[in-house]
Write a structure and sequence with these properties.
CATH class of the largest domain in chain A: Alpha Beta
Low-confidence stretches of chain B: none
CATH topology of the largest domain in chain A: Rossmann fold
Strand content of chain A: 25-35%
CATH architecture of one domain in chain B: Orthogonal Bundle
CATH superfamily of the largest domain in chain A: P-loop containing nucleotide triphosphate hydrolases
Order of helices and strands of chain A: EEEHEEEHHHEHEHEEHHEEEEEEEEEE
Distance between the termini of chain B: 51 Å
Strand order of the largest sheet of chain A: 6-7-8-3-9-10
Mean pLDDT of chain B: 86
Mean pLDDT of chain A: 86
Oligomer: heterodimer
CATH class of one domain in chain B: Mainly Alpha
Helix content of chain A: 10-25%
Number of strands of chain B: 0
Low-confidence stretches of chain A: 1-14
CATH topology of one domain in chain B: MetI-like fold
Shape of chain B: globular
CATH architecture of the largest domain in chain A: 3-Layer(aba) Sandwich
Order of helices and strands of chain B: HHHHHHHHHHH
Number of helices of chain B: 11
Largest sheet of chain A: 6 strands, mixed
CATH superfamily of one domain in chain B: MetI-like
Chain lengths: ~375, ~280
């Protein structure tokens, strides 16, 4: 999971200037369905904030409330200390880049970008200047007279971006910005998008169901489920230190062992599970006898044919599946307990490094710092 | 073997259907060039009935009246139908929504005779109380617009449904007030649907006989009414001539419009293909 460019990582918390503040917002449909359930959030200036979650988790509803398309049932939204909860969408200094772009099909690229500026009553020469600038920013100057259907998907996406940036919004909302593009185009577009956003310096709230998209683009992410936030943090924190089984399971692949804490020391813990004894090289906030989950990412598992030394952090199993991805291979190991352990090996040479094949006995082992103990 | 048989059967079946649909019309066109005074007996070809038509002031004024009524009532239908469709589509909750939607659809299923009779009774009593409206052009327009509104609402609704609701939101997001959303985005995108709604309600009105018969007053005879009343007295070949003229005009209009639509569609496809090959480069 590559983390591309992060404009905010070097910033100290004291320098952060608050831009958007959501206070205890809820959206309840028909009196019972809680789409968004008492969510509070602060987004700082210059940040790209990612809302990540599966379909129906409430992320889109939250975004629509920020844009002003839905009124919250409860709670307040502040933008730069101003209460905008009841401000109609057309008066908010917030613009949105829509999923599948929503470009006006009857207007040219130029007119699409100028649309918002004209509504503000900006003088004509200024509009022209701004539109040219936007076209230059997204490198579509020569496509200005074309209609949206005369553009490819990637070009349409850039027009949508230019249109949403033209009014210089205080906050830019991105609704699944890369959802409509194919995989190859996504990777390049992703970086392009982040570069442009940084160049302009606009604060963003990004909604996506694609964890890779959220991790590469956002400087902070919130994992959302059933209308509330499970965890908010830097992408690497959320990935390496998930706070619950749900988050660990949602972000990336994970092997989850269920066990009981045996030893609880300040500098280490041991957890006994059906498969093996885990030796965790750091203290946790738990106590002996507690039921916990031990989460282990597949890329942190190593495989060998020889039995590892020591009593901890290894398990024996049979290779039941080999999934080849090109850059890496995932081995599925069936352990004695019946659990299937996934191990991801990088294909660093051209012959498959482990030399393991279907039906082979193999040992999986991992380091003291590879796993996370989850109490929730 | 059975496959080949199926193929021939299919073709024969298609031919039968086409004959069923178009043979009467073809016969009518051919017999409009018949010189005989008897509609069903062929003597020899001539343009006699076309010259008779040119001299038939009643029939010609009836055609003009029908055209006028069709044009104005189609405009009215599209206007009101658009409002109905818009209200039902864009406002999901308001008092009387179900009522409006069933009322808007009612004329589609209600027998026209009953609609005509009901309107007549209403208009007679209104005239009794207010001294207005006199039965004639205005009342026919009213009846046709009533029926047409229902059809126009259906056409416009289907277009509104397939239109991306996000476009409206995008317009609003970029600073359009609700009425600007309509005039700048929704309306321009609705134009093709409005044109087809206009054509549909125009033809509905142009060949309507039932409502016109109920609602017209002395001196206001539409073309279908004249044809109908003359047919009762015994068919006159002039009717064949006027029908042929009508068919010709309609056919040309239909062919022209379908050529135009397919041309636009092909152009659009070509441009889209071009855009994608551009992007690959």
């Amino acid at each position: 999971m590559a983390t591309a460019s992060k404009p905010q990582t070097g910033m100290k918390s004291a320098e952060k200037e608050e831009l958007l503040r959501i206070e205890g917002i809820s959206k309840i449909y028909d009196g019972t369905v809680k789409a968004v359930d008492d969510v509070s959030l602060t987004v700082y200036k210059g940040e790209i904030f990612g809302l990540l979650g599966g379909s129906g988790c409430g992320k889109s509803t939250l975004l629509r409330m920020l844009a002003g398309f839905e009124a919250p049932t409860k709670g307040k939204i502040y933008l730069a200390e101003q209460d905008i909860t009841n401000l109609p969408a057309y008066q908010r200094p917030i613009n949105m880049m829509f999923q599948s772009y929503a470009l006006f099909p009857h207007l040219s690229v130029w007119e699409n970008i100028a649309f918002g500026l004209k509504r503000d009553g900006m003088p004509k020469d200024q509009i022209a200047e701004r539109v040219e600038k936007m076209l230059g920013l997204v490198q579509l100057t020569k496509f200005a007279p074309r209609k949206p259907h005369q553009l490819s998907g990637g070009q349409q996406q850039r027009v949508a971006l230019a249109r949403s940036l033209a009014k210089r919004p205080q906050l830019l909302l991105l609704d699944e910005p890369l959802g409509a593009l194919d995989k190859k185009l996504r990777e390049t577009t992703q970086l392009e998008l982040v570069n442009i956003i940084e160049q302009v310096g606009v604060t963003c709230v990004l909604v996506t169901h694609d964890q890779e998209e959220a991790m590469t683009m956002a400087s902070r992410i919130a994992v959302m489920s059933e209308g509330y936030f499970l965890q908010v943090g830097d992408p690497d924190t959320v990935y390496e230190m998930p706070n619950s089984r749900k988050v660990a399971d949602f972000i990336g692949n994970v092997n989850m062992f269920e066990g009981v804490i045996e030893e609880d020391e300040p500098d280490h813990v041991t957890v006994r599970s059906l498969e093996c004894i885990h030796y965790v090289g750091h203290g946790i906030s738990g106590h002996a006898g507690m039921q916990v989950g031990v989460a282990l990412r597949p890329e942190k598992v190593m495989l060998s044919k020889r039995k590892p030394k020591g009593d901890y952090n290894w398990a024996e199993g049979e290779v039941i599946e080999i999934v080849y991805f090109g850059a890496h291979t995932t081995y599925h190991l069936k352990l004695a307990s019946g659990m299937v352990l996934k191990a991801q090996e990088i294909n660093s040479t051209r012959d498959l490094s482990c030399g393991l094949t279907w039906g082979d006995k193999a040992y999986a082992h991992w380091s003291n710092e590879a796993m996370v103990v989850l109490t929730q | 073997m059975s496959h080949g048989l199926n193929k021939y059967f299919g073709k024969a079946w298609m031919l039968a259907v086409y004959m069923f649909l178009y043979l009467p019309i073809v016969t009518l066109v051919i017999y409009s060039f018949n010189d005989s005074k008897l509609v069903t007996v062929w003597s020899h070809a001539s343009l006699r009935w076309y010259s008779a038509l040119a001299a038939d002031a009643d029939l010609i004024s009836a055609v003009w009246l029908s055209l006028k009524i069709a044009f104005v009532s189609a405009l009215m239908s599209v206007f009101f139908g658009t409002f109905v469709a818009f209200a039902l589509n864009r406002y999901k909750r308001f008092v009387g929504r179900t009522f409006l939607s069933s009322m808007a659809n009612m004329p589609l299923v209600m027998p026209e005779v009953i609609v005509g009779l009901a309107l007549l009774l209403m208009l007679v009593s209104v005239q009794h109380w207010l001294g207005f409206p006199e039965r004639g052009l205005f009342t026919i327009l009213l009846g046709h617009a009533l029926l047409g509104t229902a059809y126009a609402a259906v056409v416009v609704t289907s277009r509104l449904k397939e239109m991306d609701g996000r476009l409206d939101e995008a317009a609003m997001d970029l600073g359009s007030k609700p009425w600007q959303v309509f005039t700048l985005v929704t309306f321009p995108l609705l134009v093709p649907a409005l044109v087809s709604a206009f054509l549909l309600t125009f033809t509905l009105s142009f060949d309507d006989v039932v409502l016109s018969a109920f609602l017209s007053g002395p001196g206001y005879n539409t073309m279908p009414m004249v044809i109908f009343s003359r047919a009762r007295l015994g068919l006159n070949p002039t009717i064949n001539a006027v029908a042929t003229v009508t068919i010709t005009v309609v056919t040309i209009a239909v062919i022209a419009s379908s050529f135009y639509t397919s041309h636009v569609e092909r152009k659009r496809k070509r441009e889209m293909a071009l855009a994608y090959s551009d992007a690959i480069r």
